[in-house]
Write a structure and sequence with these properties.
single chain, 173 residues, alpha/beta, five-stranded parallel beta sheet, P-loop_NTPase
Length: 173
């Protein structure tokens, strides 16, 4: 699928909402490029999170610049892709939007207890369970005035969440 101008879909939400697994499947099914924002974290951020320390806004700034640059690159190359990025605060989403005209955020939304259960089942990820509360405390749920955000409820099966994302993205390609 292609359009004359590139487009980024930022798959957002707290850790363990399924951003990577859902994003991978959606990108595969729709033939989109996939960029995992975790791969764009500076070394200092990875080390800090690995110690169980939450990131602050200063830590996130260079990471968000890399996310914004990745979206810009997709747009400039007339490519479509999914970028996985928590984008927890409005100011983070605004930073990603700055200078980019073809971004849609897909917010994978679930309550704390659902996400906690999913997090406990994960292996090999640098995010510590203790940090989940910090993520929910930081999360600013996108409101109606953020018209480029689509909310996807994750309190269902993996396949259903993937299908909901595909149905949200396909008309925008």
């Amino acid at each position: 699928m292609s359009c004359s101008k590139g487009r980024s879909f930022i798959l957002m939400g707290v850790s363990s909402t399924g951003k990577t697994s859902i994003g991978t499947e959606v990108a595969h099914r729709l033939g989109l490029k996939l960029i995992d924002g975790d791969d764009l974290h500076p070394r200092a951020n990875i080390l800090k999170m690995g110690k169980g320390q939450p990131l602050n806004d200063d830590d996130r700034a260079p990471w968000l610049e890399r996310i914004r640059d990745a979206a810009f690159s997709l747009e400039q190359k007339s490519e479509q892709g999914i970028i996985i990025c928590s984008a927890l605060k409005r100011q983070y989403r605004d930073q990603i939007r700055a200078g980019n005209s073809n971004i849609t955020f897909i917010f994978l939304q679930g309550d704390f207890h659902l996400v906690l259960e999913r997090m406990k089942k994960r292996q090999g990820h640098f995010m510590k369970i203790e940090m989940l509360k910090s993520q929910f405390d930081t999360l600013e749920v996108p409101q109606a005035d953020e018209t480029d955000v689509i909310h996807i409820d994750i309190n269902t099966s993996f396949d259903e969440v993937v299908e909901r994302c595909i149905q949200a993205i396909r008309p925008l390609l």
